[in-house]
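Running this now, will post back.
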Amino acid sequence: MEKVKSVLERRLEVVRRRKEAVLREEARLIRLARQKRDVAMVLAKVKKEKLALMAEEAKVLRALKQSAPAV
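Update: finished.
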């Protein structure tokens, strides 16, 4: 059981790092969009990826909570 938890914890850490990188990229693209640059398509892709990462993070968190021993 402990091995499963450590794998899930590592996966959660990876997802959180990717989410942080995507949030930074989104902020950069929003700044570019405010400067009237053509970044709409890239920004749409980044927003989709952000939503997918948030869903994956929630899924891993649920799995971690379910694998935790009842107190």
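Residues 2-64 form one domain. More later if anyone needs it.
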